[in-house]
Amino acid sequence: MTELPHTGLQPVRPTASPWWLGGLSVRQLARRVYGRVWEDELLDRAAGLSYYFSFALLPTLLFLTALLGLLPFPDLMGQLLDYADRMLPSDAASLLRRTLAEIVSGASGGLLSIGVFAALWAASSGMLSIMTALNVACRVSEQRRWWTSRLIAIGLTVGFSLFTLSALLLLVFGGRIGEAVARRIGLTPVFTLAWTLLQWPVVFCLALTGLALVYYLAPAAGRRWHWITPGSTFALGAWLAMSSALKFYVTYFVNYNATYGSIGGVILLMLWLYVSGVALLVGAEIDSAVDEAAAEAAEPSRVLRPMPPASGGKIAITSPASRGRPGSGS
Questions:
Q1: DSSP string, 194-221
Q2: CA–CA separation, 77 vs 56, rounded Å?
Q3: Which letter does DSSP use for residue 227 in this model?
Q4: What is the rounded distance in angstroms from the CA atom of residue 234 to the CA atom of residue 228?
Q5: Which of 141, 204, 287, 309 has the maximal Cβ count within 10 Å?
Q6: How many separate domains does the chain show?
Q7: Contact, 134 vs 215, CB < 8 A?
């Protein structure tokens, strides 16, 4: 048993907003997260995630294709892939589009219907790998039964697909939906303009809520629910920035096809999945560090059981919140 040293942090209630950063300054939080990234070997774990993502990506898109087919809108999957073209390097995007088209066109109706359930199962395996990595980031061990973890993974996969579908509908048909609502209710064009301007913040809120849901349910640690957290905000911003930077670098500074030949698109896709995994795991480390700092500041004299990081480095103190999932907070 190790007694926590005095940290000099201002007392913070465990139910306080995560945006208080647990009493830490931005600089203190950055230093703490930086140390945890190396202790938990997150860059290596992001490389492992990219491997599992590569197996789960196409099944996830196949499952999305089946969901989109239920809606009375033409070529929604094509619209989704158009947005993927903006974030992915061109070779990786064309590889993804071509492979998905081959899978869908090569399957009969009945086989595709059965394949949807297989695709959901395969996609949830990718979510299971995320759950394992987030357990490391949150400094907890997996205590749930295998079928409980699988059900959570399937639920998160379906939920994330629905968030993606909702965001896609807003991006593609948001203007038309606003115009239809305005005509039906008799609102002025000002409403249509406001709707058009607000659809982008709504899309970002959907993405942030989806990430917060993953950070809440995926680890085997009890955490209070918050709609938007510093970790999810950083993860989304870092993912957008790194994806754009990767595309810019590949477009103007390097030719992967000249180096890797016909598998250049595969290499680029794996690299994009890797930076996505880094953004996801660092965001989880931020939320975990905030929870830990809030617990230390709220109960500075509490004696906690130390838990070593995954790499066997310095001892880290587990948050009291990891002992059970408390009720929702604001």
A1: HHHHHHHHHHHHHHHHHHHHHHHHSSSS
A2: 17
A3: S
A4: 10
A5: 287
A6: 1
A7: yes
CB 256 within 8 A of CB 267: yes
Domain-located, residue 329: no
Flag whether 1 is in a domain: no
Q: What is the pLDDT of residue 313?
A: 45
Residue 147's alpha-carbon distances to 56, 130, 152, 161, 269, in angstroms, are 19, 16, 9, 21, 31
Residue 262 burial (CB < 10 Å; 0-12/13-18/19+)?
exposed
Provide Rg for the chain, Cα atoms: 22
Asked if residue 167 is part of any domain, the answer here is yes
Could you tell me if residue 252 is inside a domain? yes
What is the spatial distance between Cα 166 and Cα 52, in angstroms, rounded to a whole number? 25
Task: Determine the 3-state secondary structure of 186 from DSSP.
Answer: coil
pLDDT below 50 — which residues of the chain? 1-14, 108, 111, 301, 303-306, 312-330
pTM for this predicted structure? 0.73
Domain that holds residue 170: 8-323
Structure tokens at 199: 């659809």
